[in-house]
Amino acid sequence: VMVVRQEEGHIRRYVHIGTGNYNPKTAKFYTDLGLFSSRPELGADLTDLFNFLTGYSRQQSYRKLLIAPVNMRDRFIKLINREIENCQKGKTGRIVAKMNSLVDSKIIAKLYEASQAGVKIDLIVRGICCLRPGLEGVSENIKVVSIIGRYLEHSRIFYFYNNAQEELYIGSADWMPRNLDRRVEAITPVEDPDLTKELQEIMGILLSDNRQAWDLQSDGQYIQRRPVDNSPELGSHKILMETSINN
To answer: What's the CATH fold of domain 2-246?
Structure first.
């Protein structure tokens, strides 16, 4: 969504980029995120995107946004390649990605390559996942978890360590050919320090879940996590609800 206003003799654009639909029914039980911003670069990118949608222009480059079917897959592959290169230089490589489904063969192949280079990868994939974690010589450094709880996990979050210059993105697209090739989708960087901290806290809570989390095994089976040795039960949805109420 973009709202254009004239303020004090200047044009100012306000944008909202979310991970879900503007649907009052699903909003009651989907978990989603949204970024509301007046940053000029995002406003300019969304203007170009709407011109693309209407056929007014065929924009092929964007300042901040990752746009499908224009540049999204290539941009994600470059971000994964950067983590690979950092590992090859003896630095830390780390990726955390949350989505509904992981199907795209090119990105899966790149994640396997990253794992073999030493990049530590956590994937939070609620639905279909065509990647197999924990395969010897292929994906030992990849873990996949599915969170199935009170609400339907629907947000897409992407984290790249980037040699301690961490980058986070949110948006509407899964890593699937239909999203990357056959739909118009948008992914935005989240650059405000308070917001990036909050996103990392959310992912940390999801990854620590031992009540609603199912770990994907290398044979394609899922095993539900359970508290170990009298450790406390950590249900991510309960924790996030309590955090929201307290805030």
So the answer is: Endonuclease; Chain A (3.30.870)
